[in-house]
Amino acid sequence: MNNSVLIALTLTASIALSPVSIGGTAQGSTQAIKMSSFNLSSQQWQNRVLLVFAPSVDNHIYQQQMELFNQHQNGFTERDLVLVQVLATDKSYANGQLIDESSVANLRNRFGVDKDNFRIILVGKDGGVKRSDTTPVPATAIFEQIDAMPMRQQEMRSSS
């Protein structure tokens, strides 16, 4: 994996776990933040996508989930896993990169997740939904499920 992906993952974790600084940072340096669109089909066959839908960064369940992911940035990188935080009342991010409102709306519509709901959805490299949860999930459980997938098995064999 290249350094920019590692940096993005590190940023994602630090941003996700410090909700107070998100507001402060976003307000003060609007020019520095570049919004981009996020499209699931552009990730197909490149990355697995882990979508975390939540009402806001203040949502207790969302905070629990981000804590469960905090210690596992390397596991995300090893598995080509893009973390997308889809928040109703706060900024939404894909691997630390701010994503625009229309991308957020498209993701909510596609997966039918209401703004008030918490949901985790794992999308495989083939674009199919591999799991959907309404309560926080340990990163290790997600990693175990990915590691059992035929495509991941093949990746592990070819990298060793």
Automatic annotation (TrEMBL):
Keywords: Signal
Transmembrane segments: none
Signal peptide positions (record): 1-18
Residue ranges occupied by any DUF4174 domain in the UniProt entry: 40-155
Protein name (database record): DUF4174 domain-containing protein
